[in-house]
Design goal:
heterodimer, A: 114 residues, mainly beta, 4-stranded antiparallel sheet, 12 strands, B: 116 residues, 6-stranded mixed sheet, 0% helix
Chain lengths: 114, 116
């Protein structure tokens, strides 16, 4: 079956530090890959996505590249801000005949200090 | 509407009571999903509706859980005889296509259910 494994947190960084949150997956077919973010007290928001190998998703300074050879979709940001403190979820929708059920990783809590 | 709307935002109920949670998806979205977010359990798929097709109920944890979607729009998740382990945030999401939601889902803010 499909699965997503995320780097366990929590992750604590100082402002302007470089961020990497690792994500690897197992899926049938050719999945679409997503990062969702959940800010404190808010619902899940789509941060970025990539639908095929070598695609790079980007938004708000965050980037992730779909690496089929390593089945990975690591999230990166060159300089984090306090406002980036949130829970980050890696997720996939499997290709093939799957209708599109999102499978999530466990989530990584990021805290950025001034 | 502009987004996925869920109600109530918070619900406290006594163990053994029934509860109904409501989701109003984005207008025109054909696919609707329910997930549960429990502390330490991550995000758990519950049920999926697509148009007039039979829903995929494979994620419902027990027969105390049921859901319906009327007129292809509003959905209600019902939990009968609630137990303390049902305490969680129940999230609803919709997407504009049933072929996979490959543009991602839009999530509501969730209903926080507490069973005391």
């Amino acid at each position: 079956g499909n699965s997503v494994t995320q780097m366990e947190g929590p992750v604590t960084l100082s402002e302007e530090a470089f961020l990497t949150i690792n994500c690897t997956y197992t899926a049938t077919g050719y999945p679409s890959l997503f990062w969702y973010v959940q800010y404190p007290g808010e619902g899940l928001q789509l941060l970025l996505k990539a639908t095929k190998a070598d695609d790079k998703g980007s938004n708000k300074g965050f980037e992730a590249t779909y690496r089929k050879e390593t089945t990975s979709f690591h999230l990166e940001k060159g300089s984090v801000q306090v406002s980036d403190s949130a829970v980050y979820f890696c997720a996939l929708i499997s290709g093939g005949t799957s209708y599109g059920k999102l499978t999530f990783g466990q989530g990584t809590i990021l805290t950025v200090h001034p | 509407g502009a987004g996925v709307s869920q109600s109530p935002s918070n619900k406290v109920t006594e163990k053994g009571k029934d509860v109904e949670l409501r989701c109003d998806p984005i207008s025109g979205h054909t696919a609707l999903y329910w997930y549960r977010q429990s502390l330490g359990q991550g995000l758990e798929f519950l049920i999926y509706f697509q148009g007039n097709s039979a829903p995929d109920k494979s994620g419902l944890p027990s027969d105390r859980f049921s859901a319906e979607r009327t007129g292809g729009s509003v959905s209600t998740l019902t939990i009968q005889r609630t137990q303390q382990e049902d305490s969680a945030v129940y999230l609803c999401a919709s997407s504009p296509q049933g072929g996979g939601g490959r543009d991602g889902y839009t999530f509501g803010s969730g209903t926080r259910l507490t069973v005391v």
